[in-house]
Amino acid sequence: MEFKRNELKYYLNNVQVDTAMHQVSKLLKMDKHCLDFAGYHVRSLYFDSYDDECLFQKQSGNFARQKIRLRTYAGTDQKIAKFEIKRKKGQLVHKHSAMLDWEDAKAIYKGDYKRLLRYDNPTLNEIYTTFVTRVYKPKVIVEYKRVAFVMPVSNVRITFDLDLKTDINHLDIFSNTRNLMPVVLEGKQILEVKFDQFLPGHLRQVLSSYQTERMAISKYTLARRYHKVQKWEDN
Questions:
Q1: For the VTC domain, which residue ranges apply (predicted)?
Q2: Angle at 156 between CA 158 and CA 210, to 5 degrees
Q3: How far apart are CA 2 and CA 136, in angstroms?
Q4: Torsion of the alpha carbons at 215, 221, 222 and 228, rounded to the nearest 10
């Protein structure tokens, strides 16, 4: 497995986001899923083992770690569901994803993991094995608005992930009833920069002008702060 895609993350304030978004829009094309600067909504349900191995990999600062999530796109007419395995080694990322039927995704959320085997898909087969052997369960919902830009050179993708929230009442990613709570300080947003071999110099200059440091930001870990991690936390 080759880890060749770089992923850098930064916090920006709202003023920086507005400036950066307009600067980036002059250099990169808007992603095909974005009709305008309103972007699109992403909703992810993260799964983890009975002992929260994915969470603790991140909290312990492990060089190698992974996450598994079920992702939907709220506010669209299409009912799209996608499973992803995201592995990281430092700032290098390797991601596998697979689409699946909406009703199958609902059944998997409720614990019918055998639905993953219907597709004869290597990614879904691996997720099934992981879920069964490591006793994976739904852990937290993460929701945000994304505005994305792309460039073919080095497969650059720049995303602004805005208004990051978690649902504090339930884990049903398919429910329209939600009680969302912000998981970062008011006025803070997340900038993600992804690229393959290199980041073009003119983009590096734009990013450096915001005088912000790279951060080890994990949406999953941020959201888990608002949910009990282990049973002993009830005491």
A1: 4-223
A2: 45
A3: 26
A4: -160
Crossing angle of helices 14-25 and 201-208, in 10° steps, is: 160
Are 96 and 1 in contact by the 8 Å Cβ rule? The answer is no
Q: Would you list the DSSP string of 108-169?
A: HHTT-GGGGGGG--HHHHHHHHHHHHTT-EEEEEEEEEEEEEEETGGGEEEEEEEEEEEESS
Mean pLDDT by 10 residues, the chain (235 residues): 82 94 94 88 96 94 94 73 94 94 96 98 98 98 96 96 93 90 92 94 89 87 81 42
Q: Is the pTM of this model over 0.85?
A: yes
The DSSP secondary structure of 19-70, one letter per residue, reads HHHHHHHTTSEEPTT-SSTT-EEEEEEEEE-TT-HHHHHHHTT-SEEEEEEE
